[in-house]
Write a structure and sequence with these properties.
16% strand, 281 residues, Rossmann fold, eight-stranded mixed β-sheet, alpha/beta, single chain, 10 strands, two-stranded antiparallel ribbon
Amino acid sequence: MKKILLFVYVLLFHFTIILSQNNVKVKSTKSNNVSIIKKEFVIPKLNNISHKIWVYLPPNYAETSKKFPVIYMHDGQNLFDNKTSYIGEWQVDEILNKLFKKTGKDFIVVGVENAGIERINEYTPWKNSKYGGGKGAIYANFLVHTLKPYIDANYRTKKQAKHTAIIGSSLGGLISYYVGLKYPKVFGKIGAFSTSFWFSNKVIDFTKKHGNTSKVKLYLYVGGKEGDSQESDTRNMKNLLEATGFASKNIKTSVNSQGKHNETAWKNEFLKVVTWLYNIK
């Protein structure tokens, strides 16, 4: 099951490239308050692929001088625009625009595009004997020491960890989990969807070493139709965290019995994770 999920993700990526190369017209769905930063980022020692950075600004950004909490997310192609997504977008912009209209809660979202065929390398902190990978620490270093300082310098952000979240799905969930626990003074909130804990057993020792934290909030989501091992891996990791010393009140596990390993499921869970991580009533 795990091998199939990984294969499908790679296949969908290449299908998106083919559509683009053949000029297949897909309507853009991103909101007016979403843009791509002109500066592109190449991550030294990771690959030579330039990463585009998407930025969602809250509807009131230009009308106020206030600062905003920031949510960092992976797979930026899939977050805001159906034109660039693999197989449907998360609708992060539409969801947060509606949340602002309803509650007044406002966020900046930074979406880092993955590097396509290099995605496995980027989002995995450890190697897998079948699938390779293992350059996630370099990607994490980029987020902490290059991208976040750039965002903080160019946008009105609340810089403290308690205002800063990192969210991703599948391998993106794994790297979110890794970055959040390794750098708790930078990221105080983690959203890990359908996390690929299976990729390496080294996640266990990593959790034992970094899981004893009282300030980080962690939201774990898994779909019931992703396979029994995916759900059990998630529950086992939650139990390990608590045994290690992670505050139980700061972990929430969500299981959607009908959820599959896809953008639709993660889109449907996005508002829930933001609401819980930021205590929105």
